[in-house]
Amino acid sequence: MNTLRMVHPIAWNIIIGTLFSRMATSMSIPFLAIYLTSEMGVSASVTGAIIAASSLVGIAASFYGGYLSDRFGQKPVLLVSIFAWSLVFIGFAQSSAVWMFFVMNMLNGLCRAVFEPTSRAILSDVTEEKNRLVLFNLRYTAINVGVVFGPIIGLQLGSSTSLSAFYYAAGASLLYGLSLVYMLSVHKIGTPSTAKPIVTVREAFGVLRKDTVFLLGLVGIVLSVAGYSQFSSTLPQFFAMSPKIENGAQFFSLMLTLNAIVVIVFQYPLIQFGKKYSPILSILAGNLLVSISLLTFSLTDSLFGILGIVVLFTVGEVLMFCMTDMFVDQLAKPGLKGSYFGAMGFTGIGSVIGPFAGGILLDSFGTTQPILLFGALAVMTALGIPMLIKVHIMSRRKAAVTPMHESKSY
Description:
- The protein is mostly helical.
- 77% of the residues lie in helices and 0% in strands.
- The chain contains 19 helices and no strands.
- The protein is globular, with a radius of gyration of 20 Å.
């Protein structure tokens, strides 16, 4: 409770704004794959490519977004991206052709890739080091509280058959942006500092390129994200297409809600467990559980069995993502936090290859050969395990990443 009392007002604004904006976006974006497949007749591979387009743009944009926040200040970068995001959601609602969804999802990825690392850098800057783990995970909790209610509301709004929910996402982004305008003007945070030296984009790239622990961790997380991305791309299409599952869209909404509830319930005890070890070990354990979960999706048609696998998958998700921000924060060099958090946008490569590979496999094997479909996806995800093991070994040898229990003073 003492930690919560010391949370900066801007940090609270970001956390609360994240809750409501994520609630609004989860009414719409998760159902996009189902809408494209069932309402527009788009093939699974093209749908996967559309979903992947968001991450494809975000790969490069996130680094430059983080760098721009270091270079020009977090406030202007944050505000421009959130208001632009609101316009993108309106564009989704007005889309009527496949190419429009490609363009809108690319712009969606651009806005998210610029906004997210900048907001996390602000959270880090306004929070004492000993309290950062709590703050990063409060933000993660806010995301998942939003995702508990968003899909339920989206299902009632008919998001799998209509685009009207994107207007709600636009409104939430607009209100979030207006609240940030007020809070950032009152507290005078997020403006560029004239006291610190200006770092060029080449210098920022150079620092990251020489950070071997960070780069290997990045590759391992990319493959972990490729497995995680199946939850919002291949799985909803598989359930919508499967003759063994009635009301696939409704069932997927239930999966999304269960996923978010499990995150909220298990996040705190899993964080307490993860604090005893290095962040990379938590990410490694998460990758392993996600890989196992993807494989076991092919072994049951029981709805309760599938929901049980969702619980296991979600535990893996929490282990992966609750420590990712802490992993980056511990490695980030002074004056380059935005660039480091932005470079984590390269994990979006996983969100590109994941949905695209899943779509190709789904077109190839359909719903009749799930062992080949999900087995291939599980192997792809598990390829990240050797990388993460290497990072753990290197971090112990070189003390590049301080164990969580020694970092009391995420």
